[in-house]
Amino acid sequence: MHEIHLDTIDSTNVYAKLHAAEFPAGQITCITAEEQTAGRGRYQRHWVSPRGVNLLVTFYFQLPLQTLHLTSIAQVMAVSFASLLIKEELSPKIKWPNDVQLNGKKVSGVLCETSFHRSHADIFLGIGINVNMEKETLQNIDQPATSLKAETGRTWDRKSLLHKLQEQFSSDLNLFKNEGFTPFHSPFENLLAYKGEKISCFDGRKEWTGICHSLTNDGQLNLYLADHSIQVIAAGDVKNLRGSDPCQ
Predict the structure, then answer these.
(1) Which of 72, 129, 67, 114 is nearest to 97 (CA)?
(2) Class (C level, CATH) for 198-240
(3) Cβ within 8 Å of residue 192, ≥6 positions away
(4) 57 or 204, greater pLDDT
(5) What pLDDT score does 50 carry?
(6) Number of H helices, E strands in the chain
(7) What backbone torsions phi and psi does residue 87 show, to the nearest 5 degrees?
(8) CB–CB of 215/185 below 8 Å?
(9) Rounded mean pLDDT of the chain?
(10) Are strands 2-9 and 29-36 parallel, antiparallel or unpaired?
(11) Predicted confidence band at 48 (pLDDT cuts at 50, 70, 90)?
């Protein structure tokens, strides 16, 4: 894995897109930063992260266009991080499509941007992890958020955590290249937040309300509607209607 560590940058995803042509072909390039001045989540939401306490990471790599379930790669990253937390004896949930929660609060979010070419896709897969954020800072975020330190009461070694994530995701990426999302379907669904609960989901055009039912084989959301039909949602913004939060 080719590693680049930056002190201050607007966004690791933006940096990766600007410099992708310089990265070694056939490798994963991992860009990290101590501080992002314009970090963002899905739907251009600002990502709050004080300097030097969290993991701000972008993985850049290429996938062949014929890769099965190519657009589900962000969900694979969510499963990778959740798997890492389980090994650390924590109990994560995944809020569809790719937020990771602890005790109902967001600890991590994934942002995937893709550039398609004739024979391959450039993947810019960003993940932000709240590692050592203090409770006082978390309280200033406009949604329920937490950090590994807040949940466990101890300071985490960010370099060690990054190394474990690199190893886990590298292994999962190799599996994804060969088999698509299929091996990750059951692990994701077993960790699916709000399963069986009433949620709303804005898909970019329409707000849907129903029961969080299950996942399709390629990681889309099955929403059970009041008319007993299933609405399949490819991408969206989920809100738990029993008092939870819009995702960052």
Answers:
(1) 72
(2) mainly beta
(3) 93, 94, 96, 212, 214, 215
(4) 57
(5) 80
(6) 6, 12
(7) -65, -25
(8) yes
(9) 92
(10) parallel
(11) low
CB atoms within 10 A of CB 185: 20
Length reported for the chain: 248
Report the pLDDT averaged over residues 94-112.
Answer: 96
Lowest mean pLDDT among 64-68, 99-103, 107-111, 135-139: 135-139
Classify strands 55-64 and 198-202 as parallel, antiparallel or unpaired. unpaired
pLDDT at 159: 97
Instruction: Output the pLDDT for position 41.
Output: 53
Helix locations, 128-157, DSSP H: 135-138, 148-152
Beta bridge partners of 230: 224
Take residue 115 and report the two structure tokens written for it: 């550039």
Cβ atoms 70, 121 nearer than 8 A: yes
3-state DSSP call for residue 224? strand
Q: 50: which residues sit within 8 A by CB, 6+ positions away?
A: 133, 137
Domain boundaries, the chain: 2-190, 198-240
Give the homologous superfamily in CATH for domain 2-190. Answer: Bira Bifunctional Protein; Domain 2 (3.30.930.10)
Q: What is the dihedral of CA 229, 232, 236, 240, to 10 degrees?
A: 40
Tell me the C-alpha distance between 70 and 97, whole Å: 14
Dihedral angle computed from the Cα positions of residues 61, 66, 70 and 71, in that order, rounded to the nearest 10 degrees: 110
Q: In what order do the strands lie in the sheet with 2-9?
A: 2-9, 29-36, 55-64, 120-129, 105-116, 99-102, 92-95
Average pLDDT over residues 6-22: 94
